[in-house]
Description:
33% of the residues are buried. Strands 1, 2, 3, 4, 5 and 6 form a 6-stranded antiparallel beta sheet that branches. The protein is 24% helix and 31% strand. The termini are far apart. It is of the alpha+beta class. Zinc ion is lined by residues 103-105, 145, 149.
Amino acid sequence: MAIRRVIRMGHPLLRQPARPVKSDEIGGEELAGLIEDMVDTLRDYSGIGLAAPQIAESLRLAIIQIPDKSPGYENPEPLPLMVLINPVLEIIDPATYGYWEGCLSVPGLRGFVERPQHVKIIYTSMQSETMVLELQGFAATVLQHELDHLDGKLFIDRVTDTRLLAFEAEYKRYLLPMEAVYDSESVHH
Length: 189
Ligand code: ZN
């Protein structure tokens, strides 16, 4: 059990596609220890998702946990801790909706990102089972954010209007009060 340091934007590992977890690694002590470290790290940083590359482990592995009340996010639907090994994304409905995303690897910034809101992932569980999970809304956005990390992408790459990229304090002061305006503009069906 250990809290690991989250690497930040500029570190080349965040820009590198991660390698798949090998089947003989799943269930092994080393991978279990890494997942434990990721859970400890996520909780220590009060995050809602963490991908292995963010702690400098270039593996296709991510965890997500959306608590009832997560600081800084509007009314998220809770999601229990999920450990996703080698996840593959499928978009069920391409209609997008935008949220102000943040990232432990891009601390202090928020950016408005639109993503599909109804997706499915196929992944391997810690017990080596193939799992299918369908997610909608905010959870679908969080999932895609984490999967982007496995391909060396950051949320800032997805901000299409760079006027909607801001420091946290300025976001709260100037942009959050206008959220209703952006919301109505950001729904594409
Ligand atoms: Zn992130």
